[in-house]
Each structure stands twice: as structure tokens, then as C-alpha cells.
Amino acid sequence: LVSIGNICRSPIAEAVFRKLVSDEKLEHKWRTDSAAVSDWNVGRFPDSRALSCLRNHGIETAHKARQITKEDFQTFDHILCMDESNLRDLNRKSNQVKDCKAKIELLGTYDPQKQLIIEDPYYGNEKDFETVYEQCLRCCKAFLEKYH
């Protein structure tokens, strides 16, 4: 799960998906992580508003931001991102990777409510983080149903 800085949207999506997988007792089938296309926040914990939003839904995370690597494209079956800019960056990076096996697509592709883009809530408020959480929950549920 990839976003630009890996401190708002992608850690929320990662934590949501991890909880869904755990609730379904499918941990043995899934390896879940999140990363950034940029190196801006490497090593930082998620935004405090993202952590607060997750806690409000009974979800904890110890994620620290990292940048996507060549190995990610060779290791993961799916790389899901939040917006068109992420998608362009990931497709460009994947073209430089030999043996890229990851299917790269927007997480919003799986939204039953057809909200294709998950907007960055960084400059918003708690309500914007809640919107991201709700989108991620819908999309991750649908994705897990499709590939489970």
C-alpha cells in the first residue's frame, strides 16, 4: 500500500488490511506493508491524526515510514496506491525493475462506492482522516474478498 509520504493514507490502509486479515485468520496467506514513493518521511511514525483515527476504531500500528524498494516490485503480488500521482510514480519505478511481478493499481479500484482516489488528508482535519479510513476499509474488504 503506497502513498507519497507513508505517514497518512498508506499506514491507515496497511493497518486496516492487516486487521481484516487477522480477523479472518488469514495471516499465513498475506504479507502486508506500506511504503512511500518519496523519501521525505523515512523513519517517522504515522501522523498523529492517523494514529488517533485508527485507535478510535480499535486498531494499533507500529509502522515507520519507508520508501518503496526495487525488491518490493519483485516480492509483492500487489502494490496498491492512493492517487494518480502515486500510480504514475510507481509505474515509472517498476519499468526500471527487472522481473517486476507486482500488479500496480489504485486501491480505490476496489471501492464499491466508486471513489477511485483516496485524497491526502495531511492538510485537512480529523474528519478527512475518518474519510480516508472509511474508504480504506471499503476498498480493503473488497480487495480481500476478491483475492481470498
Automatic annotation (TrEMBL):
> Lineage of the source organism?
Eukaryota, Metazoa, Chordata, Craniata, Vertebrata
Name the active site residues. R9, D120 (proton donor)
Q: Give compartment(s).
A: Cytoplasm
Look at the named UniProt entry and state the broad enzyme category this protein falls under.
hydrolase
Pfam families the UniProt entry points to: LMWPc
Q: Is this entry keyworded Cytoplasm?
A: yes
Record carries keyword Methyltransferase: no
Identify the coding gene.
Answer: Acp1
* Taxonomy, superkingdom: Eukaryota
What keywords sit in the KW lines?
A: Cytoplasm, Hydrolase, Protein phosphatase
Which GO cellular component terms, listed alphabetically, does the Swiss-Prot or TrEMBL entry include? cytoplasm
Q: What exactly does this protein do?
A: Acts on tyrosine phosphorylated proteins, low-MW aryl phosphates and natural and synthetic acyl phosphates.
Report which reactions are catalysed by this protein.
a phosphate monoester + H2O = an alcohol + phosphate; O-phospho-L-tyrosyl-[protein] + H2O = L-tyrosyl-[protein] + phosphate
Per the UniProt record, the source organism is Leucopsar rothschildi
Enzyme Commission code: 3.1.3.2, 3.1.3.48
Q: What molecular functions are annotated in GO for this chain?
A: acid phosphatase activity; non-membrane spanning protein tyrosine phosphatase activity
Can you say what this protein is called?
A: Low molecular weight phosphotyrosine protein phosphatase
| Family indicated by similarity | Belongs to the low molecular weight phosphotyrosine protein phosphatase family.
Domain Phosphotyrosine protein phosphatase I intervals: 2-146
